[in-house]
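Tokens in:
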């Protein structure tokens, strides 16, 4: 698999924040993080987890997909994508390979997700608008939705309203892979 190009998350976050006419302090307040967190991310002195970056972007009403597609030129709509055309929007131990790079005019987001053993979306649960669902293809994934917790294996699935607090954690000894979709594309 071809490695995705490195993205300057700090500079991109700063550009988005300034375009929204927000101070670091205001963005931190909206995102529920410290001002120092925003400052460290923008200075590229902190490498945020996917969950932490998602929380910061929620303060800007921007999805991860929009954030990572920002500088890409709009591509004509396609119906088919080869495996090497899936856009990597994940980071570190979690890979999110998105079908289609630019989802700004789309109603659905489809991801091929891969979690390394022990990978976790974070202690702070995710929340965003919409609905999401997925099917585990390989491995074991602990999925928490509000007060419900279930370990899913190959062929098992989930489907819930995304405004409920949720978390994903690979509890197995091998990578866990799943196919997921959410609408609207808010992740």
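Residues out:
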């Amino acid at each position: 698999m071809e490695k995705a190009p490195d993205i300057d998350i700090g500079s991109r976050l700063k550009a988005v924040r300034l375009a929204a006419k927000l101070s670091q302090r205001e963005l931190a307040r909206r995102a529920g993080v410290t001002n120092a967190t925003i400052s460290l991310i923008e200075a590229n002195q902190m490498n945020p987890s996917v969950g932490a970056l998602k929380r910061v972007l929620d303060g800007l009403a921007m999805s991860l997909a929009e954030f990572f597609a920002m500088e890409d030129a709009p591509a004509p709509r396609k119906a088919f994508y080869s495996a090497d055309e899936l856009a990597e929007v994940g980071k570190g131990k979690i890979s999110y390979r998105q079908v289609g790079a630019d989802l700004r005019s789309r109603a659905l987001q489809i991801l091929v997700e891969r979690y390394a053993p022990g990978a976790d979306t974070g202690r702070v649960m995710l929340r965003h608008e919409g609905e999401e669902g997925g099917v585990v293809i390989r491995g074991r994934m602990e999925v928490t939705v509000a007060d419900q917790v279930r370990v899913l294996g190959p062929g098992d699935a989930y489907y819930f309203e995304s405004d409920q607090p949720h978390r994903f954690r690979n509890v197995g000894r091998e990578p866990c892979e799943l196919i997921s979709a959410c609408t609207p594309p808010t992740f």
